[in-house]
Write a sequence for this structure.
């Protein structure tokens, strides 16, 4: 915990975009309470642009900070742009994460992709979303 | 603005008592001799070590010659487990431990298992207690060693050591207890307990870090694990940490004098903290036994929130605690103790361990009772697990 950047602590202490979106266009829930992180991400889409994003997260400081950052990053992006947001981009925007906490950024990417996937399904469209190959979680667990 | 600082992590370590520091200081500079030397400087240091041995022995009802100084609770536990099993293998090759032992017992036991010993690990009940009946069932004439902790370092549950001691004596098995979490906080008497070996650690009760001891009953054979010179009656090589040992002795002396009052001071504070939290926070679970527990231990799972995030917010408020959460451990594994007593894995991740000390005041406890509930509430409002629970409660 001592290795968190000031940006991470900022987003943890005062997270942006906490909450739910009623009648969201896409919702994704990923993670597992056993491992200590569950993220739920809501998106509102108008004309192919993400106009709002909110989250709820059960997890450590890094999990909350990455949730906050990923919702910041997607707002105002087109769907196509949002699909390209990687865990590395989330971690970088936070000024880096401790090595053992990198899986939290993977979880944030997964939560976003899961919400986008849900968006396509709700629209009745084929989803171009591919989930990250590895969640990071299993790798980090001993 | 004066920010209050409340240290509720005494199970991690305690501050060194000022009188302990004072007692230690001369042995760094003026009285720096090596106890192995026969000249006056050496004898002065030797006398200080022997004086500390008397004081440490007195705290646990032992004879001075039954006390062997080591560098840590971990070393004492390794010494006991490996040293007793290896020295007495003629008796048998079976070892009994509990599943909730500290890793400094479990890991050396694992090493012995790899070397051919047979191991039975006894499960605790839901409150962390080892049933002596289970020990009686597991013990055989091949059992060389039983190692059951005096109290658990995480959940604070006190074990029925006397009952287990009666069983091991009847079967002729050696009995070691890891009393690192207990000594200095509750009365520990090796005669009443009937143990053959007992570990204690200085920094757990206002002594310096790097100082500890193993009690080994007179006549019990133990194989040295640190070989070299003939220090510590040939049981543990290496030049003695004289200032540290003096500090441990002083801490033991202070603990022996204060012990009758420590529980009396801590119990009302512990119960005030728990009740204050129970009154203000829903969906929390006290881990361990409600009464058979250390007088300064509060271990609570707050459902639907995660431990590290609570810990970070508490840290910002100047409150220092530990967590049983997977996220706070380097291995990303939650506590094996909580898992053994059947705590749900998600709940285990929302666990805080708060341990009070003799410097904790009623105002400190009030401050925690004021600061923690809004932190839990804020994190719950952020938690998808809490959201799901509320929706489920509405529909059912």
């Amino acid at each position: 915990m001592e290795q968190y950047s000031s940006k991470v602590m900022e987003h943890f202490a005062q997270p942006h975009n906490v909450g739910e979106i009623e009648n969201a266009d896409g919702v994704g829930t990923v993670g597992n309470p056993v491992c200590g992180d569950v993220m739920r991400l809501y998106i509102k889409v108008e004309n192919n642009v993400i106009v709002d994003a909110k989250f709820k997260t059960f997890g450590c400081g890094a999990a909350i900070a990455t949730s906050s950052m990923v919702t910041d990053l997607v707002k105002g992006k087109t769907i196509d742009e949002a699909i390209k947001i990687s865990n590395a981009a989330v971690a970088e925007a936070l000024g880096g994460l401790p090595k053992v906490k990198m899986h939290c950024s993977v979880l944030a990417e997964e939560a976003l992709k899961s919400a986008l996937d849900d968006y396509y399904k709700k629209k009745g469209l084929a989803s171009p979303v591919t989930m990250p190959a590895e969640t990071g979680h299993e790798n980090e667990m001993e | 603005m004066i920010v209050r600082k409340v240290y509720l992590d005494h199970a991690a370590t305690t501050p060194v008592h000022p009188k302990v520091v004072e007692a230690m200081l001369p042995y760094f500079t003026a009285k720096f001799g090596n106890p192995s030397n026969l000249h006056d400087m050496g004898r002065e240091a030797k006398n200080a070590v022997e004086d500390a041995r008397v004081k440490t022995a007195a705290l646990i009802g032992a004879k001075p010659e039954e006390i062997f100084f080591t560098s840590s609770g971990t070393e004492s536990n390794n010494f006991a487990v490996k040293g007793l099993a290896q020295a007495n293998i003629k008796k048998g090759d079976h070892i009994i431990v509990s599943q909730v032992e500290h890793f400094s017992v479990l890991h050396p036991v694992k090493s012995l298992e790899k070397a051919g010993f047979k191991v039975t690990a006894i499960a605790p009940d839901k409150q962390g207690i080892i049933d002596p009946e289970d020990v009686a069932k597991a013990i055989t004439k091949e059992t060389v060693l039983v190692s059951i902790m005096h109290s658990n370092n995480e959940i604070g549950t006190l074990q029925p050591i006397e009952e287990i001691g009666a069983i091991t004596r009847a079967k002729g098995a050696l009995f070691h207890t890891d009393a690192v979490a207990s000594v200095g906080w509750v009365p520990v008497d090796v005669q009443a307990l009937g143990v053959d070996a007992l570990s204690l650690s200085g920094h757990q009760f206002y002594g310096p870090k790097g100082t500890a001891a193993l009690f080994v009953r007179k006549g019990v054979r133990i194989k040295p694990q640190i070989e070299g010179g003939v220090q510590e009656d040939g049981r543990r090589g290496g030049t003695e940490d004289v200032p540290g040992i003096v500090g441990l002795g002083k801490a033991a002396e202070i603990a022996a004098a204060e012990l009758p009052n420590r529980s009396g001071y801590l119990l009302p504070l512990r119960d005030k903290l728990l009740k204050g939290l129970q009154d203000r926070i829903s969906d929390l679970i006290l881990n361990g036994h409600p009464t058979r527990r250390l007088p300064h231990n509060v271990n609570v799972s707050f459902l639907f929130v995660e431990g590290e995030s609570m810990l970070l917010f508490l840290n910002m408020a100047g409150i220092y605690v530990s967590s049983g959460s997977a996220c706070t451990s380097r291995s990303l594994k939650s506590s094996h103790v909580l898992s053994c007593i059947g705590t749900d894995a998600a709940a285990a991740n929302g666990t805080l361990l708060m341990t009070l000390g003799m410097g904790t005041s009623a105002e400190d406890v009030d401050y925690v009772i004021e600061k923690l509930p809004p932190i839990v509430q804020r994190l719950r409002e952020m938690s998808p697990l809490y959201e799901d629970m509320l929706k489920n409660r509405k529909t059912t």
